[in-house]
Amino acid sequence: MTSTEHGGAVPKPSNWNLPNAITVIRILLAPVFFAMLLADGGTDSWLRWAAAVLFILAIATDGIDGHIARSRNLVTDLGKLLDPIADKVLTGAALVGLSILAELPWWVTIVILVREIGITVWRFVQLSDRVIPASRGGKLKTLAQSIAISLALLPFPSLLGDWMNWVNGVTMTIAVLLTVLTGIDYLVQAWRLNRRPAAAA
What's the CATH class of domain 2-196? Predict the structure, then answer.
């Protein structure tokens, strides 16, 4: 329960709400997208286009559920926790799929996944004290990853020429750099938080 200016109590929103349902759907769509991507086998068939469009639509719901939650006062601790997890499951499926198809170096996928899994584990460890939502830098990182992965999934090079490979390389490089930098920022925050109890003692 939370208090209003006049001393009244405002009930917390239920975890069973529309934004959280959209987030769960995004998680459930990840294996469907992954199967479609691998079924194409890198042949740029209609399955590849369908997989790319499904990824773009699914990742776009990240902004939709966040907007609904904030505008309708439906922000919950569960939503704060599930939202970044849904993004990581979906982007992780895309990165692994692209690497399996030999369209993305495995080291890129590994660097991103190690960072994402590490921060997610850290969030779970902190659950007993507080829920840590995604930072502004983390949201920018997610946007950069979404753009880079979407461009990598869309078979534009076969239609527009090899210069699209250069564009894909630049956008993916930006995404990797933001992933690493925001990961370091989270580690610095964790170090500072761990120092506070010691300083207080």
Answer: mainly alpha
